[in-house]
């Protein structure tokens, strides 16, 4: 019983430490003009949220959040995205691997007049680290997550890292 309790305390402490380190990383790269939404918040929201995946096609093909729309990063096009989301009052959550590229895309959406845009804190890595489901192109659940690179992949603690 005591060992289980100690493990639980260690796990919670490590989780908090990891989140603080991630917070520090995101502060380094992000302006934080876009509000974050956290995994626990997002998983409890109703189905009317629009999810945008700001990663490249090979990353999206490996895995993505259920019903997410791939908008990419390098070739993001606000006009084609606006056609997919004509209501600028829609609640939109943008994510990428960790939340850095998604902030850039979310800022572009905000500049285009979208009012309710959020950035998923920790991106798909944090989603998977919290044991949430991801899906492949056939919309089948998978444990694989494109880890982008060895440097960034260290933030993915759960699931199978894919680098191709």
Automatic annotation (TrEMBL):
SMART domains: RHOD (SM00450)
Pfam families membership: Rhodanese
Transmembrane segments: none
Source organism superkingdom: Bacteria
Domain Rhodanese as annotated: residue spans: 45-136
InterPro entries: GlpE_sulfurtransferase, Rhodanese-like_dom, Rhodanese-like_dom_sf
SUPFAM superfamilies for the chain: Rhodanese/Cell cycle control phosphatase
Lineage: Bacteria, Pseudomonadati, Bacteroidota, Flavobacteriia, Flavobacteriales
UniProt protein name: Rhodanese-like domain-containing protein
Organism: Seonamhaeicola sediminis
Gene3D superfamilies in the cross-refs: Rhodanese-like domain (3.40.250.10)
